[in-house]
Amino acid sequence: MWFIFLSKVLQLYVTLSDRHNREYIIALVGQDVILPCKAPNNNQTIAAVEWSRPGLDQEFVLLYRDERFDVDNQHPSYKNRVDPQDKEMKDGDFSLVLKDVKKNDTGKYECYVLQGEITSRTVYLDVFSPGEFVLRVQFVLFVALCFVLLLSRISLH
Which residues form the signal peptide (predicted)? Predict the structure, then answer.
């Protein structure tokens, strides 16, 4: 019963970012996630948008060039599972919606936008099964509680 409740509570995924233009996304198996990629809105023609993943050889997660999406060079595991968040790709938004995430979707994703100049973005996706996620959260809470107790003992002496 608690598993169903927790899976409903965790319908939202967690996104963290750092100062080096990298995003960290934590999601549960089966969720849809948005892999963010923004480029300056400079009203220049979009020559290409490439979403890739190191280790996929020559195939892409999603490739846009010559004013169309190139599905011939798309990796089979991403066919019918990815779409641009904004299909018109206006206002510099080249974010990618990845549907029904799977455990093996975990890893590094790279977005490159060629629009006069090249803009790049790196996204790290970590996908957990609900039970695995609960165990990690419980462990983090346990460590935090131990740390607080340790600090309170130190401050008492």
Answer: 1-17
